[in-house]
């Protein structure tokens, strides 16, 4: 597109509102306006100039403040909805089918919608990541669209401006003084004392300070972009781990999210305060029952042997023993393992006696490991018990068949086939806690003898490589907020006219009271003409002599 040639002879880029050199209005709208918009110094912005190609339309879409605000509202709204029900991470089931059933069971129709729309795992959903990506693009495009022309305009700004530029400033004054040169010299002296940077040129003076505050919003945007980058990196493998592990006493399992590492729970310890330790605890114990003094998991960390195949838990190298307590996690290779929860007295095994009902004679005892049960328990020659089916967390029947609501042995039930020398075909029996069912009257039964329990510790494995990226982004964001909020960009123009006439104009991006306070000091010291604040008021100044175009 062709450039715009100003009356001063300077060629401005297409779309320029105010001449880069002299400040003359270049558009009909600017010429008719009594006050000019100084947000971007009247510079040509790409989004306001090019609108034909697809690239222009995409650029203009993302540079729009309305679009940016709409994306922010969408992110905030979806984030708020995502807090209505627990996220997938905090649901006590693993399989997708079980997760869907969990939301339906506990939250009804709302839970079904919550699951189907992906809110249950919102931060890893494609649409939420897309929203974050769009927000990042919007911030980058909007910043480039504005900061580049603004930077060029401020860098190239001339000291002497056309009178039409001065007349369209919010702060404007004009009048004759006794000695224009003397007033200019005194004004320069006072402005320097007020810590303004002074530029003088051909009977004109530009005093400026706090220009760096104009970059505050863009520093703010830079911090946000870094912060969003950190959030998006959390979706890549290796950058962020937040996993839960339930580990029973005596059990060794691989650490989820930490490939090659295994953890053994040697013992879980829970200490409580006794009533006699302290009067404060005594009152609290009477009120709530028990108060925990210490949660502790004594664990051993192992690592896969060098050269071993992944998953070969038989070849593990000892790393260290450690006692995990609250706020004292196990640290290794960038990972932290925190004590988060526990379950006491979980059933470990149950012992039964195969007993003849008529004589109450035991043919032997067998013990069922509730985590890894065997299929057959031999008690003697031609005497054994076959475990036909096992329901760790028995929850009634469905379609005429027993069902288990979880793999945790909270309420175990068994279907035994009992084979004895006089019953070689075997007898079937359904055995649950305080319940035994038989399809036909049996001569033998599996009689409960005892149960062994153990404690289970709940651990959380965390690793966050994005933490410092988020921290840097947050610090830069706050620097931008402070830079743009606590400082302001003030400019004062003083120019000589004909004879002893002086023009006075001023602009600031905020705190107009402060600017006028500075102007009053300079005016009184240097005998400058009166000025007025023309915001929302009709100017009472007479038409200025000369070219006002």
List the helices and strands and how they pair.
Elements: E1 4-5, E2 11-12, H1 28-32, H2 46-49, H3 54-63, H4 65-81, H5 96-116, H6 126-156, H7 163-167, E3 171-176, H8 180-193, E4 197-201, E5 204-209, H9 216-233, E6 240-248, E7 252-254, E8 261-272, H10 279-288, E9 292-304, E10 316-325, E11 330-332, E12 335-356, E13 361-369, E14 376-380, E15 383-391, E16 394-398, E17 401-404, E18 413-420, E19 423-432, E20 435-437, E21 444-464, H11 467-486, E22 490-496, E23 501-508, H12 512-526, E24 531-533
Antiparallel strand pairs: 1-2, 3-23, 3-24, 4-5, 5-22, 6-21, 7-8, 8-9, 9-10, 11-12, 12-13, 12-21, 14-15, 15-18, 16-17, 18-19, 19-20, 22-23
Helix pairs in contact: 3-6, 4-6, 6-9, 8-12, 9-11
Task: Describe the protein in words.
With 549 residues, this protein is an alpha+beta fold. It has 12 helices and 24 strands. The strands form 6 sheets. A 6-stranded antiparallel β-sheet has the order 4-5-22-23-3-24. Strands 6, 11, 12, 13 and 21 form a 5-stranded antiparallel β-sheet that branches. Strands 14-15-18-19-20 form a 5-stranded antiparallel β-sheet, with no helix packed on it. Strand 16 and strand 17 (401-404) form a beta hairpin. Helix 3 crosses helix 6, helix 4 (65-81) runs antiparallel to helix 6 and helix 9 (216-233) packs antiparallel against helix 11.
């Amino acid at each position: 597109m062709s450039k715009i040639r100003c009356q001063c002879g300077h060629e401005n880029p297409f779309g320029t509102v105010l001449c880069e050199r002299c400040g003359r209005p270049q558009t009909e709208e600017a010429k008719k306006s009594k006050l000019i918009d100084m947000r971007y110094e009247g510079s040509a912005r790409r989004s306001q100039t090019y609108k034909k190609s697809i690239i222009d339309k995409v650029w203009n879409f993302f540079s729009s403040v309305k679009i940016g605000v709409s994306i922010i509202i969408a992110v905030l709204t979806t984030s708020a909805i995502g807090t209505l029900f627990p996220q997938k991470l905090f649901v006590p089931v693993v399989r997708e089918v079980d997760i869907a059933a969990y939301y339906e069971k506990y939250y009804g129709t709302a839970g079904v919608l919550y699951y189907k729309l992906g809110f249950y795992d919102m931060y890893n959903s494609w649409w939420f990541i897309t929203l974050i990506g769009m927000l990042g693009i919007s911030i980058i495009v909007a910043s480039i669209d504005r900061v580049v022309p603004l930077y060029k305009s401020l860098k190239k700004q001339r000291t002497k401006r056309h009178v039409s530029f001065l007349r369209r400033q919010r702060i404007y004054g004009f009048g004759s003084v006794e000695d224009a040169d003397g007033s200019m010299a005194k004004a320069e002296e006072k402005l320097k004392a007020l810590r303004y940077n002074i530029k003088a040129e051909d009977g004109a003076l530009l005093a400026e300070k706090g220009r760096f505050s104009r970059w505050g919003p863009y520093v703010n945007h830079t911090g946000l972009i870094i912060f969003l980058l950190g959030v998006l990196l959390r979706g890549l493998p290796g950058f962020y781990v937040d996993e839960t592990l339930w580990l029973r006493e005596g059990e060794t399992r691989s650490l989820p999210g930490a490939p090659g590492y295994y953890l053994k729970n040697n013992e879980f310890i829970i200490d409580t305060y006794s009533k006699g330790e302290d009067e404060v605890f005594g009152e609290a114990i009477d009120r709530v029952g028990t108060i925990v003094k210490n949660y502790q998991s004594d664990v051993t960390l192992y690592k896969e042997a060098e050269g071993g195949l992944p998953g070969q838990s038989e070849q593990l190298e000892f790393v260290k023993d450690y006692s995990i307590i609250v706020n004292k996690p196990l640290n290794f290779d960038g990972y932290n393992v925190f004590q988060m929860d526990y379950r006491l007295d979980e059933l470990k095994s149950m012992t039964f006696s195969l007993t003849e009902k008529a004589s109450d004679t035991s043919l032997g005892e067998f013990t069922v490991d509730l985590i890894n049960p065997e299929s057959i328990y031999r008690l003697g020659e031609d005497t054994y018990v076959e475990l036909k089916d096992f329901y760790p967390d028995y929850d009634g029947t469905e379609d005429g068949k027993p069902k288990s609501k979880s793999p945790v042995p909270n309420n175990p039930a068994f279907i035994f086939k009992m084979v004895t020398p006089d019953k070689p075909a075997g007898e079937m029996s359904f055995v649950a806690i305080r319940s035994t069912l038989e399809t036909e009257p049996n001569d033998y039964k599996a009689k409960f003898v005892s149960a062994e329990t153990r404690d289970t510790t709940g651990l959380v494995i965390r690793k966050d490589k994005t933490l410092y990226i988020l921290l840097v982004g947050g610090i830069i964001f706050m620097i931008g907020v402070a830079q743009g909020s606590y400082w302001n960009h003030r400019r004062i123009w003083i120019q000589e006219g004909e004879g002893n006439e002086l023009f006075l104009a001023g602009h600031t991006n905020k705190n107009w009271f402060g600017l006028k306070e500075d102007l009053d000091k300079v005016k009184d010291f240097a005998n400058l003409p009166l000025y007025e604040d023309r915001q929302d008021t009709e100017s009472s100044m007479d038409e200025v002599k000369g070219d006002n175009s």
